[in-house]
């Protein structure tokens, strides 16, 4: 049996958590595959301790069917990077959180050994999450777990035309527009005033960023929809964000956004659920009156 571990920051907590996890897995007779760039970001002492017990990998092509799961150690950004390695594969992902607010990593670092026992015992479900397929922002199509965001570059307000299945939704005057999946509803979309959506809902959320008109509100549409996004601005350039990557492109760029045929699997431990995470992260039910 093999388990792959991904992290992108060699800060003390990630390094310590990764080393402890790798040794525990070795004690269980599990082969640990460690993301190569992370390994070489560690100190020489940390690398020396891990060298005998890990095998390095650089991309998903090096992960075989024997890999039980990919563990991401870090925050939401780390999780999104890890997810991009396994888009469209049967390798499920589980996030070990070393941050404070992130919604994607579901297991706190102090609960990692308990989670590991459940995973090794097969005591978990795999939840398939919807991905967006984005065309027009790079030479090849992009797969997105959270959101695609079209934003102005510079000060002037922009006009963004949004069509759904060939029909005009709106000509938005705003700083930008977000198209989010249910998974991404707790990310940038939430900051822009979008609703929280259960991850198994079959929809997308369209939210304007700082709209010029106060009567503009987020719109929920079926995930069978094809969206076309186009921006006009005096700057001549725009920023396209796909999860935690961004591209600066000319305003002649047109984006096509739709549901991807590929998905990504997230490990769902039976003692953790989405609503429990909401209550914990957003402090619902807490009395803030002191």
CATH architectural name of the largest domain: 3-Layer(aba) Sandwich
Instruction: Tell me roughly what share of residues is in helical segments.
Output: 10-25%
Mean pLDDT: 90
Mass-distribution shape: globular
Q: In terms of per-residue confidence, which ranges show pLDDT below 50 for 5 or more consecutive residues?
A: none
Radius of gyration: 20 Å
Strand order of the largest sheet: 3-2-1-4-5-6
Strand-residue fraction?
35-45%
SS content category: alpha/beta
Total strand count, please?
18
String of helices and strands: EHEHHEEHEEHEEEEEEHEEEEEEH
Query: What is the CA–CA distance across the termini?
Result: 50 Å
State the helix count.
7
The overall number of domains is 2
**Most strands sheet:** 6 strands, parallel
Features:
single chain, 290 residues, alpha/beta, Rossmann fold, 2 domains, six-stranded antiparallel β-sheet, 7 helices, 21% helix
How does this structure look, described?
This protein is an alpha/beta fold. The protein has helices at 12-27, 36-41, 44-50, 76-86, 112-120, 188-191, 274-281, and strands at residues 2-6, 31-35, 54-57, 67-74, 93-97, 107-108, 124-135, 142-144, 147-152, 158-164, 167-174, 176-180, 203-209, 219-222, 227-232, 237-242, 245-250, 254-269. It has 2 domains: 2-123 and 270-281, 3-Layer(aba) Sandwich (Rossmann fold); 131-261, Sandwich (Tumour Suppressor Smad4). The chain has a 6-stranded parallel sheet, with helices on both faces. The chain has a 6-stranded antiparallel sheet with strand order 8-7-18-15-10-11. Helix 4 links the parallel strand 4 (67-74) and strand 5 (93-97). The longest helix is centred in the first third of the chain and has 16 residues, at 12-27. The radius of gyration is 20 Å and the shape is globular. It starts with a strand and ends in a 9-residue tail after the last helix.
